[in-house]
Design goal:
- By secondary structure, the protein is an alpha/beta fold.
- The protein has one domain: Rossmann fold (3-Layer(aba) Sandwich), CATH 3.40.50.
- Strands 3-2-1-4-5-7-6 form a 7-stranded mixed beta sheet, sandwiched between helices.
């Protein structure tokens, strides 16, 4: 499987892809659509990439000018691959990166407890099961989206938001849905 960066400083660079059961990187078509929708919102943003897998979403954001990207995945194989990719690509001086090997839900709680918020929360949880719904509940409960920030949840279908989050856009690409959320309607529209 070949996954490459589509735009920005690292355009065309190929990511390290771990051999991890069930790993399903975001397709190039969906990633291109997502970053076309986000447009200039990525520039200077603090980005949280949850269920990071290959790190394609966070790496794309870094390549396109995000100020900081935090990658979170519980799989050491995945986070090791993200670290290898970052090393191979070389640093972008204006981008701070952090790679966290830990449970996504516990990390959301920890980040919220530290008072951290993010301009963009990008999440590509495993398809099937309760992951998307549980993640929306955690993000709503812990308020990690910055004022005027947004969350994008990738999945097979849209997930209704819990109280505290508002769905602001839904885009479908084949069997993949990108659902955009913000906290209580504060986001600039995407």
């Amino acid at each position: 499987m070949r996954v490459q960066i589509l735009g920005g400083a690292w355009k065309g660079r190929v990511l390290a892809v771990p051999k991890e059961a069930g790993l399903r990187p975001t397709s190039q078509k969906v990633r291109a659509a997502l970053f076309n929708i986000l447009g200039p919102r990525v520039q200077g943003a603090r980005v949280l990439d949850l269920f990071a897998g290959t790190g394609a979403l966070g790496l794309e954001a870094a390549s396109r000018g995000a100020a900081a990207v935090t990658f979170v995945d519980r799989s050491a194989a995945c986070t090791d691959a993200i670290r290898r990719t970052l090393t191979a690509f070389g640093p972008l001086p204006e981008v701070r990166t952090e790679v966290v090997t830990f449970d996504v839900f516990a990390t959301v709680r920890r980040l919220a407890g530290q008072g951290q918020t993010f301009d963009l929360v990008l999440a590509d949880p495993p398809y099937g099961g309760p992951w998307g719904r549980k993640l929306l509940q955690a993000v709503a409960a812990h308020v990690i989206i910055a004022p005027a920030g947004a969350m994008v949840l990738e999945g097979p279908t849209g997930v209704a938001p819990p109280p505290g989050l508002q769905q602001i856009r839904l885009a479908r690409y084949g069997d993949t849905t990108l659902a955009f959320y913000d906290q209580s309607g504060l986001s600039r529209h995407v």
